[in-house]
TrEMBL record, chain A:
It comes from Bosea vaviloviae. One of its GO terms (biological process) is transmembrane transport. The lineage of its organism: Bacteria, Pseudomonadati, Pseudomonadota, Alphaproteobacteria, Hyphomicrobiales. CDD domains: TM_PBP2. This is Diguanylate cyclase. Coiled coil: none annotated.
Length: 318, 296
């Protein structure tokens, strides 16, 4: 167990190092680099620019700058926002809650519906339900999330008036029910792609397990079909889904950005877009790095959980 | 792909294009055929359509603002400036499909080169390249697209480059896995024994044998690129007006959702149709090009 854990941790750390290099490269290889915001003002002389570069350490060799930047990142100093001079980490922390709320609830919804579709599809393979579900998942994976959001708003907010068309709660009414009511729309929109992913992988994972020897043995022993499905097949088929959920974090984050924009949800995605339009690079880079770390943590956590759920993996050391 | 090399050798027997096994398998896949026909029709409509329409996509007719679809001379209605939505949809289709296709070609080029090198040079170079691929995949695609697009000046070529730069990683993974397994096969070792140069082995021996998954990846890549373009254009950092694209036609549609819902519904439906079609074709190709699927 420990050698597997250690190996996996080392891999994640190495990846984090490369991720940080890419982040630093994006920041510096862009035309003008970090200095472009000062030069863009137009009211500074070259001497002024040189002095700022000197103060910010931007005239030193790139490897030195990278080392300093990495050290600051590791010690929690992610710079301050150009917009309101707040520390970047502080700003991100303030917007993380709504995004996590959206991501977790929609993942839960997607797991329940997606697993259900996948299980029925695998048990009744090639049935009408199965082929409809296959076509449905393919379409769900092809619909632009923002457009699906617009359609949901058009149907349920503009047309039927059942759901609010945006925001996290009505101003002056922050009750639980009010928040829940506002959560329904964005949660459904964000869950669409995840549901499709879950049902697809759940189906193939079920089919993998159904054909295995121990399932045939259980059938031969005369175990009731329902019991075979629920205990023998489902439990084993759910194992790979841990990995799928972990690997789905990047597309979930991308989806969250778009969903938040359409539903004016005050999360990290909205903050990212706002910061881009303000050319607030410290926040933009901060969020970019933060999401990459979230993705890394997601896959690391999935691997560790898999090791806990299936001791065979951890023991064999993969 | 298959475990048994002789099976591959059998299926590599020369056959006619239309009655070949692969084609038969593809045609059996009804959705893939539907997708292929849809793509052809959409491309044809976008290329020829604008010449046949009485309105140009840039013609502004203030008296006809917000005309509803299916009720007047404008078949799909007009936008807030009185421009014909159908004309704009077709012109936007040219841009979006072209961006999708060009971005695919570019990202396939990058992905194949990286995958080829990583699969062939095992050891440090291969490991370093693949860790770079892993690291690039840590950035959620839209965040990466937006962060870079904010730093460059938006134009059609730069958007193509941007999408290609952020979508080659999956291709590299597919190619790397293929090359790594093909490398140890007899024909590759025979080429080494005959003294072929590394480049020749990679390009003439290994790459042609990995073509099936590459074709599948390319098809799915077009779908991905069209989606990526629509996302960043919708968010305002992609193709800039007045050049229309399916994504930027939706950019301000949300504010007219109550008064002119067709402005939001129509371009989104076009994107969904195009992307679904490419995905169906990719799925069908995967089945058609995989010899293991050839059960009666």
């Amino acid at each position: 167990m420990s050698s597997f854990l250690l190996q996996r941790l080392m891999q994640a750390l190495l990846l984090l190092l490369i991720v940080s290099m890419i982040g630093f490269a994006i920041l510096h290889l862009a035309p003008g680099g970090p200095m472009s915001q000062f030069a863009a003002g137009g009211d500074m002389t070259q001497a002024d620019l040189d002095r700022i570069a000197e103060q910010l350490g931007l005239n030193r060799p790139l490897p030195v700058q990278y080392a300093e930047w990495l050290w600051r990142m590791l010690s929690g100093d992610w710079g301050v926002s150009y917009r309101d001079q707040q520390p970047v980490l502080h700003i991100i922390a303030g917007h993380l809650g709504p995004t996590l709320e959206l991501m977790l609830t929609s993942t839960l919804l997607a797991m329940l519906i997606g697993a259900w579709i996948g299980i029925i599809g695998a048990v009744k393979r090639y049935s009408i339900f199965d082929s409809m579900a296959t076509i449905g998942t393919m379409i769900a994976l092809s619909i632009p999330t923002f457009w699906f959001g617009l359609v949901v708003i058009y149907v349920f907010s503009v047309g039927l008036g059942w759901l609010p068309s945006g925001n996290r709660f009505t101003i002056g009414d922050g009750s639980f029910l009010n928040r829940l009511h506002h959560l329904v729309g964005p949660c459904i929109v964000l869950a669409l792609v995840s549901t499709a992913v879950w049902s697809r992988y759940m189906r193939s994972s079920m089919l993998d397990v159904i054909n295995q020897d121990f399932v045939r043995t259980a059938r031969a022993k005369g175990v009731p079909e329902r019991r075979i499905l629920m205990t023998h097949v489902l439990r084993n088929a759910l194992l790979p889904m841990i990995t799928i959920t972990g690997l789905h974090v990047p597309s979930l984050l991308s989806g969250a950005l778009v969903t938040e924009t359409v539903f004016t949800w005050p999360g990290m995605g909205r903050l990212f877009l706002d910061s881009i339009s303000y050319r607030d690079y410290p926040v933009v880079m901060g969020i970019l790095m933060f999401t990459a770390v979230m993705v890394l943590l997601g896959s690391l956590l999935a691997d560790l959980l898999y090791g806990v759920a299936d001791p065979r993996i951890a023991r064999s050391g993969r | 792909m298959s475990l048994d090399p002789t099976l591959d050798a059998l299926s590599a027997r020369p056959e006619g294009f239309w009655n070949g096994r692969g084609m038969r398998r593809f045609r059996r896949h009804k959705l893939a055929v539907f997708g292929a026909i849809t793509i052809l029709l959409m491309t044809l409509a976008c290329v020829v359509g604008p010449w046949l329409l009485p309105y140009s996509d840039t013609f502004i007719d203030i008296r006809q603002r917000f005309a509803a679809p299916f009720g007047g001379p404008h078949v799909l209605g007009t936008d807030p400036l009185g421009r014909d939505v159908l004309a704009r949809l077709l012109m936007a289709g040219r841009i979006s499909l072209a961006v999708g296709f060009c971005a695919m070609v570019l990202s396939m080029g990058i992905g194949i080169m990286v995958g080829l090198a990583a699969g062939f040079y095992e050891g440090f170079i291969g490991a370093a390249l693949m860790r770079f691929v892993d690291a690039m995949l840590c950035f959620p695609s839209i965040f990466l697209l937006l962060a870079i697009s904010a730093l460059i000046s938006p134009s059609v070529p730069s958007i193509v480059l941007l999408i290609a730069m952020t979508s080659w990683m999956e291709v590299a993974r597919v190619v790397e896995a293929q090359i790594r397994s093909l490398r140890t096969r007899e024909f590759a070792q025979a080429a080494v024994a005959m003294g072929s140069s590394n480049l020749r082995i990679m390009v003439r021996e290994l790459l042609p044998n990995a073509i099936a998954p590459i074709v599948v990846a390319a098809t799915l890549n077009v779908a991905h690129a069209i989606l990526a373009e629509s996302y960043i254009s919708f968010l305002g950092y992609g193709i800039q007006p007045p050049t229309p694209s399916w994504g930027n036609m939706l950019e301000n549609a949300q504010s007219y959702l109550t008064s002119a819902p067709w402005l939001a519904i129509i371009p989104g439906a076009a994107i969904t149709l195009a992307v679904t079609s490419f995905n169906f074709v990719g799925d069908g190709l995967r089945d058609a090009l995989d010899p293991r699927m050839d059960q009666p």
